Amino acid sequence: MAKILFIQPHPDDLELNCGHLIHYLTTKSKQKHIIKIASTTKGEYGLPGAQYDKFKGDFLAKVRTQELYNAQRIHGIPPENIHFFGYVDGLVEFTKEFVNKIAEYLKEEKPDIIFAPEAIYTAYYHMDHVNTGKAIYYCIHNKLIDFAPTLYFYSTLSPNFFFGFKKEAFSLIDQLLACHKTQFWLINYATWTYKPKTRLAGRRVSGWKYAEKYRRVYFCKKNKKKNKASLIVKILSHWYSSMPFFRAKYPQDVLEMLKKQGKI
Fold first, then answer.
1. 63-103 pLDDT, tens per residue?
2. What one-character DSSP code corresponds to residue 38?
3. How many CA atoms does the CB half-sphere of 75 hold within 13 Å?
4. Contact (Cβ atoms closer than 8 angstroms) between residue 152 and residue 215
5. Would you call 147 helix, strand, or coil by DSSP?
6. Which of 55, 140, 200, 201 is close enough to 211 for a disulfide, judged by CB 3.0 to 4.6 Å?
7. Predicted confidence band at 245 (pLDDT cuts at 50, 70, 90)?
8. What's the whole-number mean pLDDT along residues 190-195?
9. What are the C-alpha distances in Å from 191 to residues 15, 20, 96, 177, 226?
10. Domains in the chain: ranges and CATH
11. Distance between CA 154 and CA 212 in Å, rounded?
């Protein structure tokens, strides 16, 4: 039995990246693993445009928290196994304070395995995602914790581990996404590419047509060569990092305050 931590920047990030794996671990695995979910933010500014400003902030945070609870109940994961770090949607910075907070949580939970957003070779260059992944990597690589969990990155362009699933299992993802009603404006866009991407990953797994893809990160010196990505992946990563992806849409008064604080 292992304790497995899935960490995400926003309440809906795991559904299209780890939904099948989480469901297998919680409902089908012969071993009864302990599954923990941690979210860096509550996604309190995750609505598009000024017309939704009256909902943003604390109100949207409460709604999205409940949406996450509803989705995780499908896996059988109770609210007490879900943790929020309390950072603000769109403003997760890679700082000493942030890294230390992540490290303290890891020391408290002591997970055997961690799944986190890709920190380097990612097509989804949202800084909340990148900085969350970087903080997890930094804690392990620099030995800020006194144990060595196995680390996997999801949403990666350089996968080396695949979890296969059957075509019928797409209905599971539909159920999970249906719980995140406030995010349909973004989810509808993301699902256009979901089936082709999982079909492409499925070609890498014998006996499976579809698969989720992950990158296992190696910290042992003799295995570090396994972390190297291909030239095309490096080029794509550099290209994606130059694109203005998915910034939070703040209300005007919040926007002015953040500008004065130099945060945007």
1. 999 999 999 999 999 999 999 999 999 999 999 999 999 99
2. E
3. 32
4. yes
5. coil
6. 201
7. low
8. 91
9. 11, 15, 35, 10, 30
10. 3-260 (3.40.50.10320)
11. 9
What's the DSSP call for residue 5? Answer: E
Please write the tens of the pLDDT for every residue from 131-185.
999 999 999 999 999 999 999 999 999 999 999 999 999 999 999 999 999 999 8
Q: Is the pTM of this model over 0.85?
A: yes
Judge residue 161's burial from the number of C-beta atoms within 10 Å of its C-beta, 0-12 exposed, 13-18 middle, 19 or more buried.
Answer: middle
Q: Is residue 216 within 8 Å of 151, Cβ to Cβ?
A: yes
Location of structure tokens 């949406």: 67
**Average pLDDT value for the chain:** 94
> 204 has which bridge partners?
none
**How many DSSP H helices and E strands does the chain contain?**
8, 7
121, 229 Cβ separation under 8 angstroms: yes
State which amino acid sits at residue 13. Answer: D
Nearest CA to 60 out of 93, 92, 90, 105 is that of: 90
Nearest to 153 by CA among 182, 114, 180, 190: 114
